[in-house]
Write a structure and sequence with these properties.
Three copies of one chain form a homotrimer. The first copy, chain A, is an alpha/beta fold. Chain A is built from four helices and 17 strands. In chain A, strand 16 and strand 17 form a beta hairpin. The radius of gyration of chain A is 20 Å and the shape is globular. Chains B and C meet through helix 1, helix 2, strand 3 and helix 4 of B and helix 1, strand 1 and helix 2 of C.
């Protein structure tokens, strides 16, 4: 569907804005293709992910995609990669170490709303802090529930649901996640 | 990568637009940090999630993040929270009750395309309506398939794939989802 | 939270920009509602998904949502549907055939970073190419790991984690994915 056609009969300035946004996108898309061999969502070509990390006071060398939602009190160390489609919920406090890989689609929650929903809004949200050590790999689409502590060097397989704590160097996977091998 | 540098030699008005978008983002990000202690994707700081729900004729008190995709005929009740990265597919009709929590990453489908793909586009899409009762909690990244009916007060664990119906107050999890406890 | 109120005392041109973006969104949202019975994220009402596919040199009839992240060397055939919240990682090369359905939330990786993270950034990223045949259906939220080859006509169930190769017409599901039926 041609977007410009959708603006026929509307104010001229809106058509101009749409055209300028499209030109801006085209230039940035071309530069990203040429310099970084990649194609990203519009907001990620507009804004830098190291700047987002800096705005959030995360550590040196850490980067965060535009589509990451950050809530409440979240502390992240150095050189950690936070992918797109992520949720870092620090409403009950969240701490993440250095050199972690928070893969695309990972959600880390420090609150939960099961009882809120089933009580029809009567029961309050519940909070518990989450801590992730240094050098942890959290695989794509994994969910970390409130109250979990993961030690240093943990590896969480893709698509896992982690609802209890694990010590340093654990390799876990599954829903709920269990030690593997 | 400095975005302004990427516009060197291009039209001046595009550099102005990029600068204004960046300033707008910075102001809104600062206000969200100060007033709501959160940092959201650009489109979510620009646009209100209660306004999106209102535009869709969803019930009073319901909110929907910008990254939610809504297709076809979708009816949602009051005070329901629809998170980011969600899909509400009403191409075969979808109804959701009051006080539900549709967690981040939930996809609810009322059509499917398995046969379309494997037949090389020969077979048509298939449709079947989906219904979710009141006070349901659908955990993050869960998928509800076409034809499913969930009663009131159901809890669906994170990362579940729900492909059959369950009565009121069911607690289910897994792929495919089964009653738990 | 009224966004315009958040700009009180700031430069007039930023308030104008916010108003124009909001008007543009409202017009496009109304047109999408009327003509396509759908409501999409802001970037997807601004930009066309067939144009994104064309920019990426994907085949005729293929479409790609704005929120798809494309990295490195990715080749996609004709009439393939690539949904929102997807990752097509061709950093180690990725090839996808015709008439595939790459459902929402699917991540296809041709690199991995487990050892990078657990070694504190010492170990390099690891790469291996991925190939997906024609007429494959990859269910929502499924992850395809580096090195995987899927033949033609494969069906991958929702929420699966595919870490080995499967021949033509395989029906697989689970984490890790196994043949079903």
């Amino acid at each position: 569907m041609n977007r410009e056609d959708l603006l026929i009969g509307k104010e001229e300035k809106l058509l101009s804005l749409l055209k300028e946004l499209t030109e801006l996108k085209t230039i940035l898309d071309n530069q990203f293709k040429e310099k970084l061999t990649r194609n990203l969502p519009f907001a990620d070509v507009l804004f830098d992910r190291w700047e987002k990390a800096k705005f959030l006071n995360f550590g040196e060398g850490t980067s965060v995609y535009d589509s990451c939602h950050v809530f409440g009190n979240v502390v992240v160390g150095k050189n950690t990669w936070v992918g797109p489609f992520t949720i870092l919920d620090g409403s009950g406090r969240l701490q993440i170490g250095d050199f972690c890989c928070i893969s695309a689609g990972v959600h880390i929650y420090s609150h939960e709303t099961v009882n809120w929903a089933t009580s029809g809004g009567e029961a309050p949200y519940e909070y518990a802090p989450v801590q992730i050590g240094d050098r942890c790999y959290i695989g794509p689409h994994s969910i970390i529930a409130s109250g979990v502590v993961l030690g240093d060097g943990c590896v969480v397989g893709a698509n896992s649901f982690v609802n209890k704590s694990f010590p340093n160097n654990s390799r876990i996977a599954g829903s709920p996640a269990k030690e593997i091998r």
